[in-house]
Write the structure tokens for this entry.
Amino acid sequence: MSRKPPGTLGVALILSRVGLRRSINRTTSRMSVGKKSPRSGTARKSSRSLPILIIFGGIFLLNGVFVSGQLLTNLTDQITNVAYERRGEEVPEDSNWDISILPTAGDWPVDEEVADAVGVALGMLLFVLTVALCFMSLGLQNPELGQTHWSMEWLFSFPIRANGVFLAKIGEYGLVNFFGWFMYLPLLFVPFFASGFGWWSAPMAFLGALYANLLVGCFRLLAEVWLRKRFSPARVKNFQALSTVAGMVALMMAFFVALRPEVPAWFTVAALDAPFAVVGLPPAAPLLWVYSAWAPLVLVVFLAVIADQTVRAAARLVRTGLITTGGNYVGVRTAPGAAPLPSTDTGRLRGVLGKEVRLLMRDRNFMVQTLVLPLVMIGIQLVVNPSFANGNMSGPQGAVWAFGLGAYVLMFGAIGVLAVERKSLWLLYTFPKPIDRIIREKVVIWGVVGSVYVIGVLALLWRPDADSGVSVWISPLLALYGIWLYAFIGAGLGTLGTDPFADDEQKRVRPEWALLFFMLCGFFGWAIYEDSLWTKLVLVTLTTLVGYAVWVKVAERLPLLLDPTAMPPPRIGMADGLIAVLVFFMFMSLAVALFTFGFKIEGADAIPPAYALAALITIALTLYMYWRMKLPNLFRSLGIAPDPKILTSVPMGVAAGLCTSLLGIVVLVVLKLSGALDNLPEPEMVPNLENGLGGIWKFALLTVVAAPLCEEFLFRGVLYRGMRATLGVKASIICSAALFAFVHPPLGFVPIFALGVATALLYEKTGSLWASMAAHATHNGVIVALAALGQTFAS
Amino acid sequence: MSQIQSDDETVFDQDQAPEPESHEPPGSHVHNGSVVGLKGLCKRYGDFDAVVDLDLEVQAGEMFALLGPNGAGKTTTIRMMMGILQPTAGSARIHGFDCFTQREQVMAEVGYLPDEPVFYDYLRGREILRFVGEMRGLDAKEVDRRTIPLLERLELGDALDEFATNYSKGMKKKLAITAALLHEPRLLILDEPTNGLDPFATRTLHAVLREQIEAGRSVFFSTHLLDQAERLCDRIGIVYRGRLAALGRIEDLRAKLAPGGTLEEIFFSVTEENEA
């Protein structure tokens, strides 16, 4: 006698519980410490890192809030203007806010007509955004669709109704739609906050975003079932490609309206003329909360009806079975038992290159995503912004665009260089060739493809200035070099971030690694854009070294890639130091922006707190990474353990610092005498001493305490230590000192290089960083004291 | 002068100390004719010991079967021999080369058939064979010359222009066997070779394996089919819960463990003995 199977809600509940269990297991098996019984869930090694994800997520959300706040201000201003003009009234006092991260509570327009129109405008944007997300959920964000394998097949072998399975799927799709969360949360939070809900706006925005994500989930489920039911996987892939393009166009439209200094006039007029009922449409309905406390009820009713109808419709679709279409891509089969025909086609490209190109040409969805989408983006830009091609892109700006577009292609192409191998990766391991070399061969494809885009965009946008001479060619050449360099960096990072065991296609390349790549691309964009040749050189050198270091790490990791538990021995590598330095740079510029715009601290005063904050975050992150990597003797390896011989090592450091500062003074005097210091711009960092010595203390604290602590940790503790493992002692002393001098202003190159050599030698000699820190502090102290004395006497 | 060096040995060792095995010059290991040499081989996943202290040797021209129930550690052993997994302790050598640190040299001599071969989505069977050939320096004509007779014997010829994802499990296995034999390796490593093959293909495969031995090459395969091992091999090893429970010529084992009995009886006597 068989028991009664669970009903719709029961099935949904069971599946959610299983899903939850899975994610709990995934987390706990990695975190558990102490004794376990044998084979009670062996943790797989992972390349995921939570803190990076949290930091990036936070930055994205903050940025979203900032952008949405801007949008709301612009909308309010412009709609007010148009509305009052129509009524023939005087426009009231401008309520423009300053640029700050949070909107001001109570900024929601008071005038009823304006308030309604702002709601309608936001509603229209939400609508377009939801359409974009719906398409994206079938396209770019859904690599699973179009695969032959469908996870639902197994679930359908149980004696349960399809409705429960579908309901659970809607929930899953709604919750894991990260892109949706990042879009909806800020866009809903800002109007709630502005209309005076205070911090309640956060949970309200969460509920609103959940609702919107679930709507997208409904669409995705129904569309998936329909496509799978109706078409063969190869056809579905074509739909996918089309959805990606459609979604991108819708998204670009929303961005075009929202992300510009001024909202287009037609949009404000449309917002005023459209009926208020637009806000009542399902995708815009969360906004009703601004107007009425009954809004949650409306959302619940909408969601219940839509989900119910979706589930019923999907169940109707599979009434005749889950799968009715035939096989996958169909090749040619001759009659059974026939003799095989000899090979006919002879491709130009052989080996792994030939294979890769063949695979790419056959994956239309991938081609569209990677190769066609950038063209669509440029096309839209050209249509909505015709001035784009009219010459104002000459100079570095055009080169940055060219590099950016090429980098976009790499983002999908080069990064996936290992992930595209999927489960066939084992085959590469059977060849008598190092895997990292096989993978590197494939990067050539992306170098070539990226170069084609760079050259294309340059040809379209970039015109050399006639009067600038040879130097005008620097930026386009740099863009071209950058694409090749970043093809390698992207492939390296993609390889490090690939989980070859992940079943879920989407999770194969960890998003943090793609984000890291994105960030590094930003550095190179900066290098192209930057006027100062010195900074250009520093950034290009640093990124090139990162490329090299990443591949050192890749070569270390690849042999162990298919081993589910073995990791390379934990150690401080060269890539770590370089990335730590770059990350410090990034946090530094972010922190300066935060203190300048967020807390309104002006000019040089923002530098010390920004430096401290950036240093703290970078050091904390570095320590956390090594701790998680289980680096033995964490503090001692990094040279920051208590040193018993501190009484001899610190005086040694002080002596060394005195020597290098003496050298610094000599160089300074020579430069002064030679006149090289005469027409220098006033350095931004040195505080103005005309108002007394008050400012000097902060500066001294920065240079004598904070800088030695942080820079010795980064440049000696991590960078030198990491290089030492790869390059050996002598080469690392010179390289790390050169890099150290490199990131300082060019005039101080010689003394700072000397300081770098001295501190590295001290570290080598004493085995801890305290002597180096003492040397660094002494050096900076002497120089700063002299500068202060000089200025005091001068005034 | 370096204080770092003497001060924190544990870390520094991993920085610059050579790999434990590599103080022997590569490939110079005298292997007295043994093709496969596993010495104290261990593999641990987290807290679970998958393979413990495995010692065995396979001589040139020998067909050796590793027997054992599901989850005994057969595939883990084979993957360590292929350099895909890093041994937790001990070493696996093939033709004197270390399987993990000298993987490339080992692969030049080895043909491998995994238990469940997976191939690229968008490549036809023929294109996969060509790719494998190119990666080993063979051109298309040479690939055809070497594979077509075998493909005909395995009755895969008609599906050669079909995408390999559309193959059934057995067809994929046939394709992978063809790919493994392509470069005429001196050692074949096969993980459950006949799993999923129909009786015809199984018969063909057995014949192919015997031909390999006749040509002076060696075969190492894992299986849980006792009669297959009995029919093909002289010497077998039985692993049970990661440990080698028995090793030797079938007759010797029979005499020792189950006089007059079948291999099945030997198998049960070994595994149940361990159970107790």
Remarks:
- Residues 199-214 of chain B form the longest helix (16 residues).
- The two ends of chain B are 59 Å apart (CA to CA).
- Confidence is low (pLDDT under 50) at residues 5-30 of chain B.
